[in-house]
């Protein structure tokens, strides 16, 4: 049981680290200073979630994940290539941020389907609500950028 809990939490730590790096990458590419600040705040939120999950892994006797996933690295590389080819307009950058949040939503949904201890499930559910809010906020920002383009 503990191994499954630790594995699930480590998967989410990877997801959070991917989100943190992804938001930082998008913040670098965005031209609007206010959006840049917003994206950096989302990166910090992902970092805080990873720290909270790390504490749970340790509490359950596991070794916490310390890096982002290969898939996340590949996605950021793809963003860099796409930005180089298409230009780094805010709408394109925000679309890629939204895509990253789609992945996070899927990871959290998958974790919530598992049979986990209530304390772990409560943390994951609370963080999942934050992921949903981030996703919707990014989508709204992207739609605004699209409308003003």
From TrEMBL:
Q: Which residues cross the membrane?
A: none
This protein's name: PA2169 family four-helix-bundle protein
Superkingdom of source: Bacteria
Xref: NCBIfam families? PA2169 family four-helix-bundle protein
Which InterPro entries does UniProt cross-reference here?
Answer: CHP02284, DUF2383, Ferritin-like, UCP029477
> Record's Pfam families?
DUF2383
DUF2383 domain: which residues? 4-114
